[in-house]
Amino acid sequence: MDSLYSAMNQRIKGKHLSFEERVIIQTRIKDGFSFRAIARELGCSPSTISYEVKRGTVSLYHGIQG
């Protein structure tokens, strides 16, 4: 069953991230997950997560400053 799930979780190359995936990225970053862990969950490359954060489509969580 695990191999079936992992096969279903594979992304199609060149497919854009959905709004829901961007929300997941933002939430996971807020929770302290690494780019690699987020990428594994979404089935994409860690560099994809990095690019999304650098582009500004996903904001980093910096906490309350003061």
TrEMBL record:
Parts of the chain that traverse the membrane: none
Record domain Transposase IS30-like HTH: where: 13-56
Pfam family, one: HTH_38
InterPro entries: Homeodomain-like_sf (IPR009057), IS30-like_HTH (IPR025246)
Protein name according to UniProt: Transposase IS30-like HTH domain-containing protein
Upper classification of the organism: Bacteria, Bacillati, Bacillota, Bacilli, Lactobacillales
